[in-house]
Amino acid sequence: MTSTVRTSVTPRLLNKVPAITATFWVIKILSTTIGETFADYLTVQVGLGPLVTDGAMATLLVIALVAQLRTRRLVPWLYWTTVILVSIVGTQITDFFTDILGVSLYVSTAVFAVVLAVVFTVWWRQERTLAITAIDTPRRERFYWGAILTTFALGTAGGDLATEALSLGFRNGALIFGGLILAVWAARRLGLSTVLAFWIAYVLTRPLGASLGDLLTQGRDFGGFGLGASVTSLLFLAVIVVLVGREQVNVNRHGIRAKGDTPAVSPRRDYVWAAAGAVAVVAAATALAPAAVPAAATPATRSGSGSGRVDPLEADATSPIGDLRPFAVIVDDVAAKTKKDDLAGATARIKDLEVAWDDGEAAMKPASPDDWHTMDSAIDGALTAVRANPPSQASSLTALHALQSTIAALDKKQ
């Protein structure tokens, strides 16, 4: 009589992560920026709101992640689609803790750092490696995507903490985080572990991408290019599609030569493609950036009704978080429409306030986070009241008057 001993064999896969090349990092940074801008676009400009946007993006991520986990080899377009969705959801997780639950960025940053350390510890104990060149079993891939999601959440919280606590702003943030990534590269050349260098750089690309995204989306009066979230997202997505398309063609043409390897890529050719992607972004941003608006034509010098009236409050251009005159103009318009019982008109006009406030966040929030949150809470109250179903004239006027008082109080602090 013979007995058969059954052994559990973990299925081996071809490595599921692209080669870590210059093109990889360009795509990673661009996808990170989309995570910052696209969710804002859906939430504010499209008007889906945070709950609908969060639910839709989480659902798409689950679908993409299941498809990614079911493949047995690298599929570039599917891999990067998953990364983009992880970027968006990772950003939303941090924003949920900060904006909805009111959790301090110090706390959320510490929590995500601990979670990432736990993921790495368990991963190491189970697999004895954290190398992304060996994502060749289903369990390793699950660890990998858990770490990736956590790095995006940590990068968002840590980046926001740095820019707010240190009042860096998006321009200084881009320089500082870019410099830190270069320092990691230099340390790698001097002997730093490849695995450690990769994960440190991966976390740092999140705040770098967010700073670059803010630089392009913020208005010219805030020191940005003024492209807005929609144009920036489309621009970056177009470059990503081209670069990922090239990777997909290489995989289709050459395949994966052996487990743990990706198609042979000429380093020189890869640098050319990466540089071309970066140049395309800069050139398009420069060409699409709107011209600076003369001071006499800014919204601060006229009311939304076109009367040309300038209120005493609007004549003062200073506050701890910057020029509040454009917001005061919109609030005055909404209040005027509400007093006339034109609640439909007030609802339509307050959309301009939501968009303008969202557009100015990256520049205004670091200047004085506490004052920004005070204004943000007052704006949220006005938005909630005016958009109530059904809206109440009395409740709307109360919330709008509270917002006007908040603007006046901030204006007096100077």
From TrEMBL:
Pfam families: DUF347
Keyword Membrane applies: yes
Keywords: Membrane, Transmembrane, Transmembrane helix
Transmembrane region(s): 48-67, 74-94, 100-123, 143-162, 168-187, 194-213, 225-244, 271-293
InterPro entries the UniProt entry points to: DUF347
Organism domain of life: Bacteria
Signal peptide as annotated in the record: none
Region (Disordered): 296-317
Name of the molecule in the record: Membrane-anchored protein
